[in-house]
Design goal:
- The complex is a heterodimer of chains A (641) and B (132).
- Chain A is mostly beta strands and 641 residues long.
- Chain A is built from seven helices and 40 strands.
- Chain A has a 22-stranded mixed sheet that branches. In chain A, strands 30, 31, 32, 33, 35, 37 and 40 form a seven-stranded antiparallel sheet that branches.
- Chain A is elongated, with a radius of gyration of 36 Å.
- Chain A starts with a helix and ends in a 25-residue tail after the last helix.
- The N terminus of chain B is likely disordered.
- The chains are: A mainly beta (641), B mainly beta (132).
- At the A-B interface, helix 3, strand 30, strand 40, helix 6 and helix 7 of A face helix 1, strand 2, strand 3 and strand 4 of B.
Chain lengths: 641, 132
């Protein structure tokens, strides 16, 4: 016989999901909005594996996927059998495995029926020794044997028998699935942003962390309307050795979530939640989302649900009650009661735009098409430095064009690239030639781009597609940043040549050039457009076919192959070798942070004395050559104006 | 002062006419005029064929999900200074792979996944986070 529940949940799950989807589509206000303990099906104690119940009571129903060890005197469901039914009979105790009759006397099931997955070693008495109707009993053999399970109702009253809805029946709850959901819920609840107001007991010092306010081992919580989230470490939790008091007690309108970061084994010395009663407990949850062994200690009552779905829970030191659900991999209880107060509220973070990214994590909480900023470099700017005589070697001052840059790849909830905002800041042009600057997005076809804005084009030697990418680039999108660098410097005389490479000459600044590239929706996943796809290059002296890239970066389709092998260039396109000399020297450098560049006619290694050591060591020494550490820079050789 | 700067600028441009590292070229340029400062030390350097010339290094980052768990949380990958390199919503039962560029002087990244955090050595260019 199949339980109603195994059928009903499937239906109800569909209905719940449907309703949830509808809520998302219409209200779009919350993500993962559900009671995190819902998969525990309303059981007071819900355990994936085995349970040992020694003393004293669980007021509500108990379920476990594994064995139940009887080793004391215990009462189950003495207040209610809950709502889980099989063939319309409510179940007060469900044991997925078998019963281990260890020691003690009786375990009473005060309300509801019992289901036992594995009857090995158990004898079920639907009637007494005389064959008369009597309360149900499960023993290790004889009718009066101890320890035993004694129900407080008869088979006749329940309408059950050996053949109709029998005690021994397995597979009624899929504990593996239930705990996968409970563990998922614990992780999701743990990710909720801190939203709490703590104070010291006098209320004159506020904070969001216990160490900020704790005074004489006491704290106070000012509960606000909605869900209050306290994120603490186990150490912080245990540091409250005195009372925790409340301004506004937890209730249906003021929920308290306590996420406890206590990986591995945690000895929980339960704090004293002064002034709370059972009526407050359905609105308090302790979420041990990474604890694997939870030892409940101290002397105080736990007011609220203990959600520890990764943990074996032991409560043999603490003799007080738990006023809420107990959810764990296993449970060993000796002392106190588990009082019936299931955690009721749905939990979820607000999601104003309905993109499934909680507002607290969403960089664009009111724009469903955007979710995250991803900056490169992650902080500050990078510096690009070029020699512009390629294919001939120059003077290696690497200041013929100097540009700082940073860009922000904006992604949506599915990690697709929505837009990239580039910022380029020309710093210097130590050249008499009229150089331009562009970049290629390796592997991104121009058709994947919706629009490009911000290009500074004046010379007219390059045509653009309607979407703003450069025309004549069939494979990789190329974007012109500017076609003549001198035009970028404010106030620079028309006949000026070198810019910002001689200290004695007036410095000119450039506006930040902002290029915005938008992408066809869903066409480019961020994993395919990481920073290594950004391929910047100089366009030398208004000659479109003369690109100068970083070492070994692939040129665009506009590149003229006539230059390869000329001068000191030793490019070998067939081997993927570009823009390197016979000695493997480059024509461009990219530095991961903004650095000052060399003065005009100053060989770069004179300004950065450890540069050559880094190169000759193949990068194994002096890797910090560019950082402003002692010995790395010769300020007299740098443009520092 | 402005006039002095203009004068110096003119002088410098005249100088660059002979010594510039740049030069007007046609389709295939002729040999350039190099610096009058003499030997260029860097030009004498021989770099290894595989030398990257980069002050960043690639890290192949992988998030290995756990098929037994199913939830979606924010994943942030941070550099050693705590700056966010990438961030996305990540399913716990899925794999994710991306190439990151970090400063060559850094050797760890930190992955924040929901409330969990893990710092991983990536000095070998590989960093994998396994969801237990």
């Amino acid at each position: 016989m199949k339980s109603l529940f195994t059928l009903a949940p499937q239906k109800s799950q569909v209905l719940v999901r449907s309703a949830f989807t509808t809520i998302l589509l219409t209200a779009a206000s919350l993500v993962h909005a559900q009671s995190p303990t819902a998969p525990a099906l309303g059981f007071n104690v819900f355990v994936k594996n085995s349970a040992k119940l020694v003393t004293n009571v669980t007021e509500g129903p108990v379920a476990m996927g594994g064995d139940l060890t009887l080793m004391g005197n215990y009462n189950v469901a003495n207040k209610t059998a809950g709502t889980f039914k099989v063939s319309n009979v409510v179940i007060g105790l469900l044991i997925g495995g078998k019963i281990n009759f260890s020691s003690g006397n009786q375990t009473y099931i005060n309300n509801g029926y019992v289901k036992l997955g594995n009857g090995t070693g158990s004898t079920v008495f639907y009637k007494d020794n005389n064959g008369a109707s009597s309360n149900l009993r499960i023993t290790p053999g004889k009718y009066d044997a101890t320890p035993g399970l004694h129900l407080q109702t008869s088979a006749a009253k329940l309408g059950v028998s050996e053949k109709v809805n029998p005690v021994i029946e397995s597979g009624l709850i899929d504990f593996t699935k239930a705990f996968a959901s409970l563990q998922a819920n614990a992780k999701m609840v743990a990710s909720m942003a801190t939203k709490i107001e703590l104070t010291n007991p006098n209320g004159d010092r506020k904070g969001t962390k216990i160490p900020d306010v704790i005074t004489n081992g006491q704290i106070k919580i000012n509960l606000k309307s909605g869900t209050n989230v306290l994120n603490v470490t186990g150490e912080e939790l245990n540091s409250v050795k005195g009372n925790i008091t409340f301004n506004n007690a937890p209730d249906a309108s003021r929920i308290l979530v306590i996420n406890v970061n206590a990986a591995g084994t945690f000895n929980w010395s339960v704090w004293n939640q002064a002034g709370l009663g059972i009526q407050n407990c359905p609105y308090i949850i302790y979420n041990f989302y990474n604890t694997t062994n939870l030892l409940i200690q101290g002397n105080n009552t736990i007011e609220g649900t203990v959600l520890a779905p990764f943990a074996d829970i032991t409560k043999i030191v603490n003799q007080s009650n738990i006023e809420g659900q107990v959810i764990g991999l296993s449970y060993y209880q000796s002392g106190g009661s588990n009082n019936f107060a299931t955690f009721i509220p749905s939990l979820g973070e607000s999601d104003a735009d309905g993109d499934t990214v909680p507002d607290s994590k969403d960089d664009y909480p009111n724009d469903a098409s955007r979710a995250f900023n991803n900056f490169y470099p992650a902080k500050g700017t990078s510096t690009l430095m070029y020699e512009d005589l390629w294919p001939f070697k120059g003077d290696y001052d690497f200041n013929d064009l100097v540009i700082d840059y940073r860009y922000n790849t904006i992604t949506d909830a599915s990690n697709n690239v929505v837009e990239i905002n580039y910022s380029f800041i020309p710093k210097a042009s130590g050249a008499v030639t009229k150089n331009g600057f562009a970049f290629q997005l390796d592997g991104i076809n121009p058709s994947q781009i919706t629009s490009v804005s911000g290009s500074k084009m004046a010379a007219g030697w390059s045509a653009l597609n309607n979407n703003g990418t450069e025309a004549g680039q069939p494979e990789n999108a190329n974007i012109i940043v500017f076609d003549y660098v001198n035009k970028m410097f404010k106030g620079l005389p028309a006949n000026a040549s070198t810019v910002n490479t001689f200290s004695a000459i007036e410095k000119y600044t450039a506006d930040t050039i902002k290029i915005i590239v938008t992408f066809q929706k869903g066409s480019v996943n961020f994993a395919k457009l990481t920073s290594e796809k950004f391929n910047p290059y100089l366009i030398a002296d208004q000659t479109r076919g003369r690109e100068i890239h970083l070492a070994n970066r692939t040129p665009s389709a506009k590149m003229s192959s006539a230059y390869y092998g000329q001068g000191q260039d030793n490019s070998n396109p067939a081997a993927g070798k570009y823009f390197k000399t016979k000695n493997n020297l480059p024509w461009a450098l990219e530095i991961s942070t903004s650095i000052p560049y060399a003065l005009e006619l100053t060989e770069f290694s004179k300004a950065y004395p450890n540069f050559i050591k880094w190169v000759e060591s193949n990068g194994t020494t002096h890797a910090d050559w560019y950082l402003n550490n002692p010995g790395n820079r010769d300020a007299s050789k740098l443009y520092l104006k | 002062m402005k006039n002095l700067q203009r004068f110096l600028l003119a002088c410098c441009l005249a100088l660059i006419g002979f010594t510039s590292c740049t030069k007007q070229m046609d389709i295939v340029p002729s040999a350039p005029v190099t610096s009058s400062t003499g030997a260029i030390n860097l030009a004498e350097v021989k770099a290894a064929e595989n030398f990257s010339w980069s002050t960043t290094k690639k890290v192949e980052f992988t998030f290995e999900g756990n098929a037994m768990q199913e939830y979606t949380l924010l994943m942030q990958v941070l550099d050693a200074d705590g700056n966010v390199l990438i961030q996305k919503m990540q399913k716990s039962n899925s794999r994710y792979n991306a190439t990151l560029n970090i400063d060559i002087n850094q050797s760890t990244i930190t992955i924040n996944y929901g409330a969990d955090s893990k710092t991983i050595d990536c000095s070998a260019g590989i960093a994998t986070m396994n969801l237990d």
